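General statements about sequence and structure are easier to judge against a single worked case. No coordinates are needed to read the tokens, only the vocabulary itself. The sequence in question and its structure tokens are set out directly beneath this paragraph.
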Amino acid sequence: EVYIMSQINVYDLTFYYEDSYDTIFEQVSFQIDTDWKLGFIGRNGRGKTTFLNLLMGNYEYRGKITSSVTFDYFPFPIKDDEKDKNTIELVERIDSNYELWKICRELSLLQVDSEILYRTFSTLSNGEQTKVMLAVLFAKDNNFMLIDEPTNHLDTSSRGILKEYLKGKRGFILVSHDKWFLDSCIDHVLVINKTNIQIEQGNFSSWFENKKSQDQFELAENER
């Protein structure tokens, strides 16, 4: 049996918010391989979050998004009344089919003791909460992760652990304003421009260098 890399296909995607005339996306088409590690770049903050929401099926849109994977979003929302529960109860809500050994495996990669699962969620530090959430999501099968600003509220050592962890993973889109963090864990860049979405192999720095030389080239052309 030939292994065919699975793809996420976006075809002719058009979307705008009801209350505004600005089209966020107009007839955008592209493909993503499900084992890429994508960094998400774009000036328009709204466009990035919107695109993640469209993948999650949270908004209606025109066009077509097809994929054989399930999209999971980090950080998942936690209701106030859940924060006083044991962390393992939260895990059950997020993934009722969870396998404990898989979550323990992820936690050990994140350098956290699995006894953390039996503590009240609200007593965990920001770093511990982040790591538990990522462990639960990465322990699932056949999912593609949409990771939104995972380093918020983390200290330097937690950021370092997280960076090493994501380096060993594949199959995600990572939104982060931390360029050092992005550079160390991605192998493709997904860029939202004004009119299209472009995908390029490499990391943030290589994309930035390409963009700079492209901008200089266009300036020189314009002056000619």
